[in-house]
Design a protein that fits this description.
Elements: E1 2-5, H1 9-26, E2 31-34, H2 41-52, E3 62-65, E4 67-69, H3 80-87, E5 99-100, H4 109-122, E6 128-131, E7 153-156, H5 159-169, E8 178-181, H6 184-188, E9 192-197, H7 203-211, E10 229-233
Parallel strand pairs: 1-10, 2-3, 2-6, 3-5, 6-9, 9-10
Antiparallel strand pairs: 4-8, 7-8
The protein binds 2-amino-2-deoxy-6-O-phosphono-alpha-D-glucopyranose.
The site of 2-amino-2-deoxy-6-O-phosphono-alpha-D-glucopyranose has 14 residues, from helix 5.
């Protein structure tokens, strides 16, 4: 595990964007695993800036996102598809037909999960996975549980996750109670993982995830077992 200390959010974002752009420059057809939330917004901003300067070309890149709320259409402003369009896909020269997010409106959840796993496999797996972490240690929407969920699955969101995401929706009732998330297996099979953590109130859970016991009660703790994990953080 490599830990890169950043001065602040902007510095963290620039350092993470550096790793991603190096990946894309070296391997233009990379499969990027992408994340949503407030942590990666600055990273995407930085990538867009470098794209506008002509430094990074996304035309060959394919992407798979970690998760999506169940019940939200991609055009819904709170959907993760919309988030990705707004913060990255609509601002760079990526082929949007090669950007994938679970379908929040899928009628058959089981079939949707199978489809998403097969899709990741058909892309040849993930070259670089960008991750944030939730206050309870979740990665993607892999919530604390009794076992690590290996494959894409439908999750009942924990009350603390609903609470944390209420800031995007206005009130807790509007936050979907379920979400699709990529499983631990797809995340762990990514060739490279970049975990970004900025907010000070996550310092404790980050410590637990990186140095505590590897347990599904802290889903992010599995990352200790990954052979190529880089943590970029400005927490103390
Ligand atoms: N599903 C997402 C995660 O992928 C993200 O890492 C986490 C942290 O979000 P933030 O970066 O906004 O703190 O929240 C959400 O629940």
């Amino acid at each position: 595990m490599k830990i890169i200390k950043a001065k602040d959010y902007k510095d963290m974002s620039r350092k993470a964007a550096n790793i991603i752009s190096a990946q894309v420059i070296l391997y233009p057809n990379s499969v990027l695993g992408l994340a949503t939330g407030s942590s990666p917004i600055g990273t995407y901003e930085q990538l867009v800036e470098w794209f506008n300067k002509g430094d990074v070309d996304f035309s060959g890149v394919r992407t798979v996102n970690l998760d999506e709320y169940r019940g939200l259409d991609g055009s819904n402003e709170q959907s993760y598809r919309h988030f990705m369009d707004e913060h990255l896909f609509d601002l760079v020269n990526i082929d949007k037909s090669k950007t994938f997010v679970p379908n929040g409106l899928a009628e058959d959840p089981e079939a949707e999960c199978k489809r998403y796993d097969a899709l990741i496999e058909s892309l040849g797996g993930i070259d670089l996975q960008l991750l944030g972490i939730g206050h309870n240690g979740h990665i993607g929407f892999n919530e604390p549980s009794e076992a690590f969920d290996k494959t894409t699955h439908l999750v009942d969101l924990k009350p603390e996750t609903i609470e944390a995401n209420t800031r995007f929706f206005g009130n807790a009732e509007d936050v979907p109670k379920q979400a699709y998330t990529m499983g631990i297996k797809s995340i762990m099979q990514a060739k490279k993982i970049v975990l970004i953590v900025s907010s000070e109130d996550k310092a404790e859970i980050l410590k637990k995830a990186l140095y505590g016991p590897v347990t599904p009660e802290v889903p992010g703790s599995i990352l200790q077992l990954h052979p190529d994990l880089t943590v970029v953080t400005c927490t103390t």
